[in-house]
User: Fold this.
Amino acid sequence: MKRNAWWLFALLQFGVVGWMIWRYQRIQTSGTVHRFLLEPVDPADPFRGRYLQLSFEADEVALCPFNGQNPDRLYLSLGKDSLGFVRYLKAGKESPDSGEYLQADVADIYGNENGCATARLDFPFDRWYMNEELAPKAEKEVAAALTRAGTRCWLAVRIRDGKAVAEQLYINDTAIADWLPR
Amino acid sequence: MNPREKDLLEWQEAGLIDEATRTRISLYLQEKDQHQTPPLFALFAVIGALLVGGGISLLVAHNWDKLPQAAHLAVAVFLLLGGQALVFFTLRKKKESAAWRESSAILHYFSLGGCLAIISQEFYLGGDMDGFLLLWNALFLPAVFLLRSPTGSGLAIAGSSIVAAISGYAFQQNHSDYLIGSLVLLGLLAYFYVQFLQGPEQAHARRIHHWLWALVTPLLFGIFFRYDTSYAVPALGLLFVLHRYIGHLPRLHESGFLASGWLSIGTVGWVVMMEWMGFREYWNWHTDERISHAAAPLTGSIAFIATLILTVTLGVFTRMGKGKREILDFGFVPIALSLAWLQLLGPWAAALFCNLWLFVTGVVILRKGGNEGNLGALNLGLTIIALVLLTRFFDERIDYLLRGLAFIVTGVAFFLVNRHYMRKARRKEQAG
Assistant:
């Protein structure tokens, strides 16, 4: 009886892990690439190792009209600026019928002027995991790059049906791993 | 010759048992020994598995970025399958061995965590520690029940409590699902605690679980007061009285104060809360907090009232467990009455009442300890009295002279009472 139950639970564990791999692999291989401008720092996670904590220039969106109800999640219609970086065309509680969109959690909502409020967003791709030796170097390089005029740090994100997977972190057009002195 | 065999032979020679009985007992003990793991071996297996498991987590956290993605994912799947195979083998071949059950539960826990960590690294999944831990502990939970592993249960209680604390105390709106999920896990683990950790062979594990649960409960109870902290201290005081009631329950009762985490933490926690409420400044702060959080959600007030009703009902109308009620089991009385004095007379009356009740409690316990010759109770009573005085050390409204004399008298009382009762106990021993 216990052995049969264990087969069932083992299959469930395997199913969950397999579903996670399939879900994110699908986005990684066939999602559309979008570019998010960065402001990172370097902390550590006891289980998943060192990473760059990513925060983004575009981490807020206007909610118009705002009816006083705080949504947990928003669907952002995505467009691009003249340099190819993401900008939000619209934010709503339902996924749009057409065009690219991203699903993001709402961290908080503030201000309520002229029927509009501002939502601060929590993205599902706020960490860039790195080897423990490289992460502190990357943090320094990115911090230096952010203060240099004309240098841009950005994250390429694959998005499919509103779900996202981070693809590569760039300083200008060079992947972070290639940018670092080895 | 086995020492127990020697005893049996001695009993047979003394005519206490016949030969047939001796042989039957001897066979029974031999069979029991075959299935049981020596406790020290089980302990070493647990420590070894925890170290290996921790090592797996650290190796994964290194992040082997030079390996291709396929290799990373293969390692993740290998870790998962390895842990599962170990559990399967234990259930099939080593079901009776505590060392195997414990070590396979621990290794499965960490290998599952390692597998999920690699997937997070590989797809740069978001940073919510509570979401990560919830998935990990939820997937692990069946192994706790199937292996009946106390260490696995302890790991899952720690993991689920961290999830509940992170998501419960966080002011982010979208973490309520994680909180509910972690509470469901903790509910199932509480069922494991009450159902499976019975019997003398589980005594150590059960006592560790008493302590674990007695510590986790106040941590989680605090979530109710995240918007409005004004009633947190009296409510925690009542919760600690409930701890004592739980400690008296026949199923969870342990002989010995320290063996029961519920009684120990319940008593110490209640005394600390009463000390806190013994300061007039606390009641001033409480009044200000209530005014400044008038518009906050009522979760704190509701939790306080619910705990008060539950404690008073259980304290007055039921008798949980055997034995007479002690003064500590009426710890809800000063909390309820001091709130009444606060309304009627002001903060000074509430603080004074808490101090008086605590002092009387100390004296009653001291007297009871003296009558029964119980040195533990004696010292608990003296400690409570000393604490009441110690907190008054900082009270500028009482003269230095008065405070100094009170300290010296209590200190001397400590020496004399202990000396008297130790001598009494020694005389009793010699007479016996």
Observations:
- The interface with chain A takes residues 57, 60-66, 73, 76-77, 80-81, 84, 87-88, 91-92, 95, 112-117, 119-127, 129, 132, 135, 139, 142-143, 146, 171-174 of chain B (CB under 8 Å).
- The mean pLDDT of chain B is 85.
- The radius of gyration of chain B is 27 Å.
- The first helix of chain B runs from residue 3 to 13.
